[in-house]
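hi! just following up on the protien thing from before. the input was this:
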Amino acid sequence: MERLQRISSALTTPSTSTTGRLQNWAKSLTFSTSNVYYPKTVEDVQEIVRSCEKLRIIGSRHSFSKIADSTEALICLDFLNKLVSLDKVNHTVTVEGGMKYGDLCEYLHENGYALNNLASLPHISIAGSIATATHGSGVNNCSLTSSVISFELVKADGEVVVISRKDGELFKALVVGLGGFGVVTKVTLELEPTYEIQQDVYVKLPMAALEKNFMEIASGAYSVSLFTNWKNKTINEVWFKEKVPKDGPRKYAPELYGAKLATKKMHPVETQDAEPCTDQLGIPGPWFDRLPHFRMKFNPSTGQELQSEYFVPIERAFDAIMAIESLSEKISPHVLITEVRMIKGDNDWMSPTYKRDSIGIHFTWKQEWEAVQKLIPQVEAVLEPLKPRPHWAKLFAMAPSKLQSRYEKIDEFRSLLKKFDPTGKFRNEFMNTYIFGN
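and the predicted 3d structure came back as:
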């Protein structure tokens, strides 16, 4: 297998540990094997898949859970990251699975196109984001899977298949596939005409204002995010990202339920330098340079951190926030920031927002695992009446049986996994525990 590229002492990356094993981007997780393949073509992927008994797929390594880990072999899509085609007739783009959103978006804009939404970080790979139903924000915006028209998949036997929306329920089952069906080598995304976004930030919103006004605030712009560090019963910042109207940028009121319109550029974590963040203060800019919170050329978020996220019904948003507020004295010393985002429900079987308009409550923790691992179960306990679903790629403590009970299609999902991968080639400890365990 001369074409296959293994990691070695000659190859170093910023995300490699002193043991030679890859790490996630925050260096909070070290993968369990140094046996990593780097394919450059679909044929390479087929050869790797056929040659391995066990295998998992990694993209940009933005996961905090062990969903992508393997004790035997990894396939990394870093080099399978090219543009395949831009179809100006059908208004779609096809890319290789390892391409990052930030590397695609400027090209789309230059050609007059846009995606309907982006996550807070543009640094994430397209195939990996889709596999875990990663999302941005906006009451009318589903997760990033909503842009997917079709994807190419290398199955466990090396066969290449294409799954598209035309496949109906099969597409909905596989699009959030958790890496269990094979290697996604190409993705075709639906496009829309390019647009501009303006970003405005309010600071110091009293948390009590959310009780009667949450939906008004949450739907106050195309994409809205609320940030809090759980101190002083305050939402530290409210970020409004609005499509720029034809008659020019929207003029926001100087006050929002006691919050003041920011007069300087802000970072979600107030103590951090705002330079890595996308432009604010109502200055219009391309969609790809406003919808994320952070700019591509900078280190995203705060760098060294831990993350967890839970999805609950949007109509219970205030209840969820107040439930976590009850833990504020325990949480605040160990959290960098918590973001509340809005996600429209979808019909993708394993999406945490399946058939449920939701809020995602996203914790960016300090890298203090001893404390955080004690707090996560407490967060889950106070949210339990709202039947939270955790983000697959982030840290959680929920029992497998409870997690599985939150997904009505879990039995059919397991059956399809067995059909596509009868020997369990793409299963790992995470899949065996949370999909097949009890």
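The chain is about 20% helix and 25% strand.
The longest helix spans residues 369-383.
cheers
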